[in-house]
Amino acid sequence: MAPGSGTRPERRGQPPGGWMVLAALALLWVSHAQGGGKPGCPLCRTPTLAPGTERSFLLELAQRQILKKLHLSERPNITRPAPRVAVINALRRLHARRDGLPEPFTTWHSPDADELAYEIISFAETEITSPSGTALRFRFSQGTGRDVHILQAQLWLYLPAQQIGRAQVTLRVSLAGALLDEKRLEARAGGWHAFALLPTLQGFFRRQETMLRLELECHGCHLNATAGSNSSSSHQPFLVAKATVREAGQRVAKRSLRCDQNSNLCCRKDYYVDFRDIGWDDWIIKPEGYQINYCVGQCPLHVASSPGMASSSHTAVFNLIRAHNTQTGGQSCCVPTRRRPLSILYFDRHSNIVKTDIPDMIVDACGCS
């Protein structure tokens, strides 16, 4: 990912231990689903989060899970980080293959075994179209019969510091005249800025197009510098995305379906946690985030008690909630049936670089208990 900045709140206090953390957060989930004086969906049918609460709920869950499984009472306070050159050199040595060539720590796995996972980085071809406008073109190769699912997409633009002129500048990104994102920025600050592109890029790949053309308007700044008209410029605009690709005809496992608007049966809902959003990008080196997927949906009798359903802490959590919720009756719950570890590279409190695999962090498939 490109460089970014943001607040880095320190997290203090002792998180509850074991599966009680999940129980507390799951109970919070239920309170959101059934709050506001209106009867919510019965638990273990279609638990939902109130609008605007999903993000805060999942970010809190991610923080508690990582700290607990790393046996940390709080996030490390990095006061004297190692020099960047030293870190890069250490990572190069850590990931060197037997033949001596580097193997970057950028590999990640798709939630489904029959999907291929990709990280896409595309640099823009630029063309100045007016004193305040420029066109950004991104080219992609698309094969026929491929189902591309975009998990995350951002456009990164560099704004040079303005020594004269306005106190603020406005950057607008549009597609075919439709505004996608807009930011008002302090002109003297400068730096890299990200613009959200997930729905736009998902629609682009769904239409099987090969060239994405965005319009950039910059009011109050020098657009030549912002657009990085020199192709060798280190400030050239670029697009970065995470995606999974499924080839045509590949089988989809019945119990690992992604949630969509066409079904309310037990399914896996995907959510990407970016460590910058919780201020943890200063001590977690790699990855930049991870999929904190969760299970949601109805469990009718004909899919309940699926063969091979393994007991887990998630099952215990929802059983605890069901015991305190008379609406659920004896109906089974939609819970994880397959999980995998998260590989993580981070600074400890002594600024040592540590690499480890945190077990059972990413939900791959869901089923009915």
From TrEMBL:
<dbReference type="GO" id="GO:0005179">
    <property type="term" value="F:hormone activity"/>
</dbReference>
<keyword id="KW-0964">Secreted</keyword>
<dbReference type="GO" id="GO:0005615">
    <property type="term" value="C:extracellular space"/>
</dbReference>
<dbReference type="GO" id="GO:0005125">
    <property type="term" value="F:cytokine activity"/>
</dbReference>
<dbReference type="InterPro" id="IPR001318">
    <property type="entry name" value="Inhibin_betaC"/>
</dbReference>
<dbReference type="InterPro" id="IPR017948">
    <property type="entry name" value="TGFb_CS"/>
</dbReference>
<keyword id="KW-0339">Growth factor</keyword>
<feature type="domain" description="TGF-beta family profile">
    <location>
        <begin position="252"/>
        <end position="369"/>
    </location>
</feature>
<dbReference type="InterPro" id="IPR015615">
    <property type="entry name" value="TGF-beta-rel"/>
</dbReference>
<keyword id="KW-0325">Glycoprotein</keyword>
<protein>
    <recommendedName>
        <fullName>TGF-beta family profile domain-containing protein</fullName>
    </recommendedName>
</protein>
<dbReference type="GO" id="GO:0008083">
    <property type="term" value="F:growth factor activity"/>
</dbReference>
<dbReference type="Pfam" id="PF00019">
    <property type="entry name" value="TGF_beta"/>
</dbReference>
<dbReference type="InterPro" id="IPR001839">
    <property type="entry name" value="TGF-b_C"/>
</dbReference>
<comment type="subunit">
    <text>Dimeric, linked by one or more disulfide bonds. Inhibin A is a dimer of alpha and beta-A. Inhibin B is a dimer of alpha and beta-B. Activin A is a homodimer of beta-A. Activin B is a homodimer of beta-B. Activin AB is a dimer of beta-A and beta-B.</text>
</comment>
<feature type="signal peptide">
    <location>
        <begin position="1"/>
        <end position="35"/>
    </location>
</feature>
<comment type="subunit">
    <text>Homodimeric or heterodimeric through association with alpha and beta subunits, linked by one or more disulfide bonds. Inhibins are heterodimers of one alpha and one beta subunit. Activins are homo- or heterodimers of beta subunits only.</text>
</comment>
<keyword id="KW-1015">Disulfide bond</keyword>
<dbReference type="InterPro" id="IPR029034">
    <property type="entry name" value="Cystine-knot_cytokine"/>
</dbReference>
<keyword id="KW-0372">Hormone</keyword>
<comment type="similarity">
    <text>Belongs to the TGF-beta family.</text>
</comment>
<comment type="function">
    <text>Inhibins and activins inhibit and activate, respectively, the secretion of follitropin by the pituitary gland. Inhibins/activins are involved in regulating a number of diverse functions such as hypothalamic and pituitary hormone secretion, gonadal hormone secretion, germ cell development and maturation, erythroid differentiation, insulin secretion, nerve cell survival, embryonic axial development or bone growth, depending on their subunit composition. Inhibins appear to oppose the functions of activins.</text>
</comment>
<keyword id="KW-0732">Signal</keyword>
